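Morning run. Coffee first, then this:
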Amino acid sequence: MSPHKVALHGQIEPDVFPEFVVVSEHMRSVMRTVQQISRFDANVLICGESGTGKELLARIVHQKSKRQDKPFVPVNCGTLSGDLFESKLFGHEKGAFTGAIRQTKGRFEQAHQGTLFLDEVSEISLPNQVNFLRVLEDGCFRRIGGETLTSVDVRVLAATNKDLAAEVKARRFRKDLYYRLQVIPISLLPLRDRREAIPYLVDAFLERFAKIYQEHRVTVSDDAMQLLMSHEWPGNIRQLKNLIERMFLMASGPVINVDDFPEDFVGGT
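And here it is:
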């Protein structure tokens, strides 16, 4: 059976895999949810382990929405804290702090009429969560060092690899923000729980790398595919993609065999 693929029509970075392979009932259910909410602007919380494709799914949600021709602005919350978080999201006025030599728009303004994607949303500090929640509720904010309220029309998609309900119970994440973000919750299973997708992913990755590097297409032997199927994939689809790219570039012939696998991978199965 051929997999169902969701094309993104080139609206993603070149290093992101541009198709979402749907071969399991779990992924078909995920895509049914995406189709069902495509007409609405409700906030979506995507949960799943690192490497399961949360940002790619967020891009698909954006692509299928009425905001598809407007900006999709990703933010990695894990790299921001304190004033840096607020400066990145809300922007700042000239002279607001040392080094603020010009007025700068934040990610909310950059995403106006489009979609703001917050990755690792669980990493937002409790003090930053307060101001962030206020923007979600009111749709307006002040730049750092500014007095004028700025209004924005933004849809928020968030992602986390943590159990946010547990974070709420541990008082590391605000309950009101949690409920505001997870109007529509979507969970992505790890690759080890949807192994049936592996052959399709491998095939699609090999096809893509042949185009990127302008080389002849290679295939994977049955034994090599069995090894890929039996791996636990702690890094999920991202780990699989990186391995296939490595093996594609290092392939000495038209077929990848078990002997071609790197030692660090074989030792980790």
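Residues 91 and 106 are 4 Å apart (CA to CA). Good start to the day.
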